[in-house]
Design goal:
This protein has 224 residues and is α/β, with parallel strands linked by helices. The chain has a single domain, classed as Vaccinia Virus protein VP39 (Rossmann fold). The chain is 28% helix and 26% strand. The protein has 7 helices and 9 strands. It has a 9-stranded mixed sheet with strand order 3-2-1-4-5-7-6-9-8, with helices on both faces. A hairpin with an 8-residue loop joins strand 8 and strand 9. Helix 5 packs parallel to helix 6. The longest helix is centred in the middle third of the chain and has 12 residues.
């Protein structure tokens, strides 16, 4: 049985959608620990992927060098990086297999980074799979969930899973694919098979005048 390392099995989603692809390429924004609760560790370690890890905390650098030797390690604030220059300088492929954005919604860095990607590289580069953390259970700062969905939808991405939650509570992520890079029939089958696994979740927080009732899915209930 495959051992997955992600907190909510994002790595399982990526591998299943991409048919356990070898030699893929990722952009991981908000890398944190290179192994523990990491979405790309298994991709690099067991499937020979490579990519770019972006993390603001430079204390991770020694662990990155030791445990993620095939990756490029960028220890900088994701909101100020020139992504076009970064991609050109590192010969990033135009079709990228996976994008992770896992930053701090409460300080605006999540949406600001996505907006930079949208302006600087999304005209030329596409991502087969995306996991985007919006943390709607905790905050609606900058209307991150809605604004991110607008960007992805305008770019042609399909939201395969909406408001992923962790064991039934706290919906916090959306997962996307691009139909130019993933067979639409596969997308339709996965979405259809999982429609029954969505539950109602009440989200209440000070930013909202009223509670929001949303359909949310536990990552443990996802079927491939």
């Amino acid at each position: 049985m495959t051992k997955y390392y992600s907190q909510a099995e994002q790595d399982k989603f990526i591998l299943n959608i991409l048919n356990f692809k070898k030699n893929g390429y990722f952009i991981e924004i908000g890398s944190n620990d290179p192994i523990l609760i990491n979405n790309t560790y298994i991709l690099e370690k067991e499937y020979d992927w490579k990519g770019i890890m972006i993390e603001i905390d430079n204390n991770w650098i020694n662990k990155y060098i030791e445990n993620r030797p095939n990756s490029i390690h960028i220890l900088r604030d994701a909101t100020i990086i020139d992504y076009k220059e970064l991609f050109i300088n590192n010969n990033v492929p135009k079709n990228i297999d996976y994008l992770q954005i896992d930053l701090e919604v409460e300080n605006g860095s999540t949406l600001k980074t996505l907006q930079k990607l949208n302006i600087e590289i999304m005209n030329e580069y596409k991502f087969a799979t995306i996991t985007f953390e919006h943390d709607i259970y905790n905050t609606n700062f900058m209307n991150t969930r809605l604004e991110s969905r607008k960007i992805f939808e305008n770019r042609g991405y399909i939201r395969v899973f909406t408001d992923i939650n962790n064991r039934g509570t706290n919906p916090y992520e959306d997962w996307y694919v691009h139909p130019d890079l993933i067979d639409k029939n596969i997308i339709d089958i996965i979405m259809s098979n999982n429609s029954k696994n969505y539950k109602t979740n009440i989200i209440s927080m000070k930013e909202f005048p009223e509670s929001i009732v949303e359909k949310t899915i536990n990552f443990q209930d996802i079927e491939y």
